[in-house]
Design brief:
mainly beta, 115 residues, globular, 7-stranded mixed sheet
């Protein structure tokens, strides 16, 4: 069983930065792909960024050039550095991880960007 705990959310002004972190814990050997999703009020949950165990990354078009996803395999953590934040980045951000073809979700953390 895997538990994912997000941290680092909060309120920031447009143009500012935040760094989200997600730590995976539980009974498992290897965490495969990890990702960040977000959901704005009234909208579908969308993929923001993902990263493979070897470091290959993928980003939504809306965040390319502004966000950076990274991971620390030794600590079973994934991070999302968010720069030049915009009001439209506001939403609940969720950590996701695949372990042995099983999917796990964090509870989500709120990011609010004021304009």
């Amino acid at each position: 069983q895997v538990q994912l705990v997000e941290s680092g959310g909060g309120l920031v002004q447009a143009g500012g930065s935040l760094r989200l972190s997600c730590a995976a814990s539980g009974s498992f050997f290897v965490v495969n792909t990890m990702a960040w999703y977000r959901q704005a009020p009234g909208k579908q949950r969308e993929l923001v960024a993902d990263i493979t165990p070897t470091g290959t990354t993928n980003y939504a078009d809306s965040v390319k050039g502004r966000f950076t996803v990274s991971r620390d395999n030794a600590k079973n953590t994934v991070h999302l550095q968010m720069n030049v934040l915009k009001a439209e980045d506001t939403g609940v951000y969720y950590c996701w991880a695949m372990v042995l073809h099983m999917n796990f979700w964090g509870k989500g953390i709120l990011v609010t960007v004021s304009s």
